[in-house]
Design goal:
By secondary structure, the protein is mainly β. The chain has a single domain, classed as Immunoglobulin-like, CATH 2.60.40. The chain has one helix at about 1-15; strands at about 30-40, 45-55, 65-70, 75-80, 85, 95-100, 110-120, 130-134. The strands form two sheets. It has a four-stranded antiparallel sheet with strand order 1-2-7-4, with no helix packed on it. A four-stranded antiparallel sheet has the order 5-6-3-8, with no helix packed on it.
Length: about 130
């Protein structure tokens, strides 16, 4: 019965020149960009500073985010600001960070930045993933 009613309604709309446009679904997405801004040598190895820009690339506001990456060259993060460290279980060189209470809500197109210091081996920048929280 419901299918017949929908089909009849579609036929009536089509015969009057009106077409139904389906409502678009909200897209929830984010991306993160990893940048090393400076590096200098100390007595042991290279000390580096950098930042990660988190951008809401979706069409709806997100309420939080999680960014993660993995170093394969022995690099380590020693300090982070503007984000909280999240636990990563049994994966050597893996790091995960989440938003602070003040920078998690990002409107569509909005962004925030968090910084880090570490002992980086000088290899390629890691592949960074971002997961939004709604």
């Amino acid at each position: 019965m419901i299918r017949k009613t929908i089909a009849t309604a579609a036929l009536v709309l089509a015969s009057t020149g009106i077409t139904a446009v389906p409502a678009s679904a909200d897209v929830v997405a984010c991306e993160a960009t990893y940048t090393v801004t400076s590096a200098w040598n100390d007595t042991r190895d290279t000390v580096s500073l950098g930042h990660v820009t988190v951008k809401n690339t979706g069409t709806t506001t997100i309420k939080g985010w999680r960014v993660s990456w993995r170093y394969t060259d022995g690099s380590t993060i020693t300090t982070v600001w503007g984000a909280v460290s999240l636990p990563v279980v049994a994966v050597v060189g893996a790091y995960a960070f989440g938003n602070e209470s003040y920078n998690g809500v990002l409107p569509s197109g909005g962004s925030t930045v968090f910084g880090f210091a570490g002992r980086l081996g000088g290899g390629r920048a890691p592949e960074v993933t971002c997961r939004p929280v709604v």
